[in-house]
Amino acid sequence: MTPHHHAVGRYQVRAATDADLPGARSVMLDTFYHEFGHGYRAEWHEDVVDLAGTYLDHPRHALFVAALDDEVVATTAVRAQGPSSPPHPAWLAERYPGDSTAQLFRVYVRPDHRRCGLARALVSRAIRFVAETPAYRSLYLHTDTRVPGAEPFWRSVAVEVHDARDGDLMSNQTVHFEIPLRTYATP
Fold this sequence. Notes:
By secondary structure, this protein is of the alpha+beta class. The chain has an eight-stranded mixed β-sheet with strand order 1-2-3-4-5-6-8-7, sandwiched between helices. It is globular, with a radius of gyration of 16 Å.
């Protein structure tokens, strides 16, 4: 096993390669359709169409996968991008500018592979990548609290920045977080 791969139980957690992209895309699309219920939306998911161009060909972006044998069962991505306003508040976009902010995306685990530590292992790899990439000062993410387990998971690894839930369970149930990088900086 190389330094870029490590095991979590029977799973391999690693930076994605071209060979992993079809499996990663499948995990993402299945999440959009089966977990979120809205399917693919071009305005939100353009990165999924060009995973290589978005994540593998950009030095400040990354895609990590967890695989069981050759099957990709979980993903986590990093992009040099702060939150957009709208839909998020302007003050939040100003606090996390795209030139110095890394944002976590696509932290998805297939339902049959949950509760195995994969999300935590993938997020840890992403945090290390961000901490070691010059020019990043912040690691931002937001989550939909309607996804089972999402809010408690993020509260275990991140600090809440803004709770944007609006009381209407059919609309905005977003909470914004930051993951402190100082604890992950390499000596």
